[in-house]
Design goal:
This protein has a domain of 104 residues. The longest helix has 15 residues. The chain is globular. By secondary structure, it is α+β, with helices and mostly antiparallel strands. The strands form two sheets. Strands 1, 2, 3, 6, 7 and 8 form a six-stranded antiparallel sheet that branches. A two-stranded antiparallel ribbon has the order 4-5. Strand 4 and strand 5 form a beta hairpin. Helices cover 13% and strands 32% of the residues.
Protein backbone atom coordinates (compact mmCIF):
# COMPACT_ATOMS: atom_id res chain seq x y z
CA UNK A 1 0.00 0.00 0.00
CA UNK A 2 1.25 3.50 -0.79
CA UNK A 3 2.42 5.74 2.04
CA UNK A 4 1.03 9.28 2.23
CA UNK A 5 3.39 11.82 3.79
CA UNK A 6 2.04 13.99 6.59
CA UNK A 7 2.68 17.71 6.87
CA UNK A 8 2.94 19.86 9.93
CA UNK A 9 0.77 22.56 8.37
CA UNK A 10 1.73 26.20 8.26
CA UNK A 11 4.27 27.26 10.85
CA UNK A 12 5.76 30.73 11.09
CA UNK A 13 9.55 30.69 10.85
CA UNK A 14 10.80 31.50 14.37
CA UNK A 15 12.59 34.76 15.02
CA UNK A 16 16.38 34.57 14.97
CA UNK A 17 19.17 33.87 12.53
CA UNK A 18 18.48 31.35 9.74
CA UNK A 19 20.39 30.22 6.69
CA UNK A 20 18.25 29.93 3.56
CA UNK A 21 18.87 28.21 0.22
CA UNK A 22 17.34 30.07 -2.72
CA UNK A 23 15.40 27.48 -4.73
CA UNK A 24 13.49 29.67 -7.18
CA UNK A 25 12.98 33.19 -8.47
CA UNK A 26 10.01 34.77 -10.23
CA UNK A 27 10.44 38.04 -12.07
CA UNK A 28 7.51 40.00 -13.52
CA UNK A 29 9.61 42.33 -15.62
CA UNK A 30 6.67 44.45 -16.84
CA UNK A 31 5.76 45.36 -13.27
CA UNK A 32 9.18 45.09 -11.64
CA UNK A 33 8.07 42.45 -9.12
CA UNK A 34 10.75 39.96 -8.14
CA UNK A 35 9.98 37.15 -5.68
CA UNK A 36 12.80 35.05 -4.23
CA UNK A 37 11.74 31.63 -2.90
CA UNK A 38 13.91 30.28 -0.08
CA UNK A 39 14.00 27.28 2.26
CA UNK A 40 15.84 26.86 5.56
CA UNK A 41 17.53 23.72 6.94
CA UNK A 42 14.32 22.70 8.73
CA UNK A 43 12.38 22.78 5.44
CA UNK A 44 10.45 25.99 6.22
CA UNK A 45 9.78 28.15 3.16
CA UNK A 46 9.98 31.95 2.96
CA UNK A 47 9.20 34.24 0.03
CA UNK A 48 10.81 37.66 -0.19
CA UNK A 49 9.29 40.05 -2.73
CA UNK A 50 10.97 43.18 -4.09
CA UNK A 51 8.81 45.76 -5.93
CA UNK A 52 11.54 47.19 -8.16
CA UNK A 53 9.22 49.61 -9.97
CA UNK A 54 6.78 52.22 -8.74
CA UNK A 55 4.56 52.62 -11.78
CA UNK A 56 7.00 53.13 -14.65
CA UNK A 57 9.74 54.57 -12.42
CA UNK A 58 12.44 52.62 -10.59
CA UNK A 59 11.75 52.13 -6.87
CA UNK A 60 15.09 53.29 -5.44
CA UNK A 61 14.53 51.80 -1.96
CA UNK A 62 13.57 48.38 -3.30
CA UNK A 63 16.45 48.47 -5.80
CA UNK A 64 18.88 49.17 -2.94
CA UNK A 65 17.38 46.40 -0.78
CA UNK A 66 17.49 43.87 -3.64
CA UNK A 67 21.02 44.89 -4.63
CA UNK A 68 22.29 44.25 -1.11
CA UNK A 69 20.36 40.95 -0.90
CA UNK A 70 21.73 39.71 -4.26
CA UNK A 71 25.32 40.82 -3.59
CA UNK A 72 25.23 39.11 -0.20
CA UNK A 73 23.72 35.88 -1.58
CA UNK A 74 26.29 35.81 -4.39
CA UNK A 75 29.13 36.91 -2.05
CA UNK A 76 30.18 39.42 -4.71
CA UNK A 77 29.89 43.05 -3.65
CA UNK A 78 31.42 44.33 -6.92
CA UNK A 79 28.46 43.14 -9.08
CA UNK A 80 26.86 45.76 -11.30
CA UNK A 81 23.87 43.71 -12.50
CA UNK A 82 22.48 40.20 -12.16
CA UNK A 83 20.28 37.72 -13.97
CA UNK A 84 17.77 36.56 -11.31
CA UNK A 85 18.46 32.93 -12.38
CA UNK A 86 21.95 33.30 -10.94
CA UNK A 87 20.57 33.48 -7.38
CA UNK A 88 19.14 29.95 -7.48
CA UNK A 89 21.03 27.43 -5.30
CA UNK A 90 22.92 30.14 -3.43
CA UNK A 91 22.67 30.55 0.34
CA UNK A 92 22.09 33.62 2.50
CA UNK A 93 22.03 34.07 6.27
CA UNK A 94 19.19 36.33 7.45
CA UNK A 95 17.79 37.51 10.74
CA UNK A 96 14.07 36.69 10.85
CA UNK A 97 12.00 39.36 12.59
CA UNK A 98 8.26 39.14 13.32
CA UNK A 99 6.17 42.25 12.74
CA UNK A 100 2.72 42.10 14.39
CA UNK A 101 0.11 44.43 12.87
CA UNK A 102 -3.66 44.89 13.29
CA UNK A 103 -5.63 42.98 10.68
CA UNK A 104 -7.19 45.19 8.00
CA UNK A 105 -10.02 42.64 7.72
CA UNK A 106 -10.86 42.40 11.43
CA UNK A 107 -9.45 45.15 13.72
CA UNK A 108 -9.91 42.86 16.74
CA UNK A 109 -7.30 40.47 15.31
CA UNK A 110 -3.62 40.79 14.46
CA UNK A 111 -1.48 39.36 11.68
CA UNK A 112 2.20 38.53 11.95
CA UNK A 113 4.58 39.25 9.08
CA UNK A 114 7.88 37.40 8.85
CA UNK A 115 10.49 39.93 7.69
CA UNK A 116 14.18 39.51 6.94
CA UNK A 117 16.49 41.85 8.84
CA UNK A 118 20.29 41.70 8.89
CA UNK A 119 21.79 39.62 6.09
CA UNK A 120 25.21 38.00 5.74
CA UNK A 121 27.07 35.64 3.44
CA UNK A 122 26.49 31.89 3.85
CA UNK A 123 28.23 29.04 2.05
CA UNK A 124 25.66 26.41 3.03
CA UNK A 125 23.56 25.23 5.95
CA UNK A 126 25.21 25.30 9.37
CA UNK A 127 23.09 22.41 10.70
CA UNK A 128 22.11 19.07 9.21
CA UNK A 129 19.28 19.89 6.80
CA UNK A 130 16.17 17.85 6.21
CA UNK A 131 16.26 16.22 2.73
CA UNK A 132 13.67 18.69 1.36
CA UNK A 133 15.97 21.63 2.14
CA UNK A 134 18.51 20.30 -0.34
CA UNK A 135 16.16 18.97 -3.00
CA UNK A 136 13.38 21.61 -3.17
CA UNK A 137 12.90 23.11 -6.64
CA UNK A 138 10.34 25.61 -7.86
CA UNK A 139 6.94 24.02 -8.49
CA UNK A 140 3.68 25.40 -9.82
CA UNK A 141 2.24 25.49 -6.29
CA UNK A 142 5.17 27.66 -5.11
CA UNK A 143 4.48 30.43 -7.61
CA UNK A 144 2.92 33.69 -6.54
CA UNK A 145 -0.29 34.91 -8.12
CA UNK A 146 0.28 37.36 -10.98
CA UNK A 147 -0.45 40.95 -10.06
CA UNK A 148 -2.44 43.12 -12.43
CA UNK A 149 -2.57 40.31 -14.99
CA UNK A 150 1.19 40.32 -15.58
CA UNK A 151 2.92 37.24 -16.91
CA UNK A 152 5.44 35.72 -14.55
CA UNK A 153 8.85 34.53 -15.60
CA UNK A 154 9.66 31.79 -13.08
CA UNK A 155 13.25 30.71 -12.93
CA UNK A 156 14.60 27.55 -11.42
CA UNK A 157 17.68 25.43 -11.51
CA UNK A 158 18.20 21.79 -10.68
CA UNK A 159 18.59 21.07 -7.01
CA UNK A 160 22.14 20.62 -5.76
CA UNK A 161 23.32 17.07 -5.28
CA UNK A 162 22.03 15.84 -1.92
CA UNK A 163 24.52 15.19 0.86
CA UNK A 164 25.38 11.55 1.44
CA UNK A 165 22.69 9.83 3.45
CA UNK A 166 23.55 8.49 6.89
CA UNK A 167 23.60 4.73 7.36
CA UNK A 168 20.14 3.28 6.88
CA UNK A 169 18.18 2.23 9.92
CA UNK A 170 16.98 -1.38 10.10
CA UNK A 171 13.86 -1.91 8.02
CA UNK A 172 10.60 -1.78 9.92
CA UNK A 173 8.09 -4.53 9.20
CA UNK A 174 5.24 -3.21 7.08
CA UNK A 175 2.02 -2.88 9.04
CA UNK A 176 -1.03 -4.52 7.56
CA UNK A 177 -4.25 -2.60 7.39
CA UNK A 178 -7.76 -3.18 6.17
CA UNK A 179 -7.97 0.45 4.90
CA UNK A 180 -8.15 1.64 1.30
CA UNK A 181 -5.53 0.36 -1.14
CA UNK A 182 -4.37 3.63 -2.74
CA UNK A 183 -2.21 1.82 -5.29
CA UNK A 184 -5.24 -0.07 -6.57
CA UNK A 185 -7.43 3.08 -6.56
CA UNK A 186 -4.91 5.25 -8.37
CA UNK A 187 -3.97 2.58 -10.88
Amino acid sequence: MARIPMTSGFTLIPEGEHIFRIFGVEYQEDFGNLTVHMINAQGMIHRETFHLKNGNLPNEGAMNAFSYFAKTAMNDFSMEDIDPDDLVNHYICCEVVHNVQPSNKDPKKTVTFCNLGDKSVAEGFDTTPVPLALSKVMEESDKTKPSRGGKKKPTTAPAPAPAPAPAAAPAQPEATSSGLDLDALLG
